[in-house]
Amino acid sequence: MDRMILNGMRFYGYHGVFPEENKLGQQYIVDVELKIDLAQASQTDDLDHTVNYAELHALVKFIVEGPPFKLIEALAGHIASRLLDAYTNVNEVTVRVTKPHPPFDIHFDGVTVELCRKRDEHGQQASAEQ
Questions:
Q1: How many domains does the chain have?
Q2: Annotated catalytic sites, by residue?
Q3: In 1-130, which residue ranges form alpha helices assigned H by DSSP?
Q4: Residue 121 lies in a domain
Q5: Chain-centre distance for alpha carbon 65
Q6: Domain that holds residue 8
Q7: Which stretches make up the Dihydroneopterin aldolase/epimerase domain (predicted)?
Q8: Are 95 and 114 contacting, i.e. CB atoms less than 8 angstroms apart?
């Protein structure tokens, strides 16, 4: 299966368990990997046979910069579900959300959550990778 990968999308959001996170916000880094058949797009050079990654970026931005989630797990899950809903030609999506500056007195490059969601044999969203 072919892949389309958007790496290092950066957005400002207000997600977190602590009230100060919801008030101050911070940058989030999102990576999205789509499993999609790109054979027809590669042969026809036609945008209708692929995913418009500018639109995909706009949808992820809308979600991350929208209403806050307490957990980045929930944020990643919502992104995955919305992408599978929006792009029926996508068979599987992997979403990585990195919170580079968790509100703790520790020094590291952040925490990343990675979720993989795919369609079942009937084309419906499955809850998790099987």
A1: 1
A2: 99
A3: 19-24, 39-44, 53-64, 72-86
A4: no
A5: 13
A6: 3-102
A7: 4-117
A8: yes
pTM: 0.91
Residue at 23 is within a domain: yes
Percent of the chain topping pLDDT 90: 82
- Residue 30: pLDDT above 50? yes
Residue 82 CA, distance from chain mean position: 9
Q: Residue 120 falls within a domain, yes or no?
A: no
Residue 95, strand partner residues: 32, 115
Spatial CB neighbours of 69, under 8 Å, sequence gap ≥ 6: 15, 75, 78
What whole-number distance in Å separates Cα of residue 32 and Cα of residue 104? 27
Gap between the terminal Cα atoms of the chain = 17
For residue 56, give both structure tokens. 């995909």
Q: How many helices (H) and strands (E) in the chain? A: 4, 4
- Confirm whether 122 is domain-assigned: no
Compare 44 and 126 and report the one with higher pLDDT. 44
Q: What CATH number did the domain enclosing 56 receive?
A: 3.30.1130.10
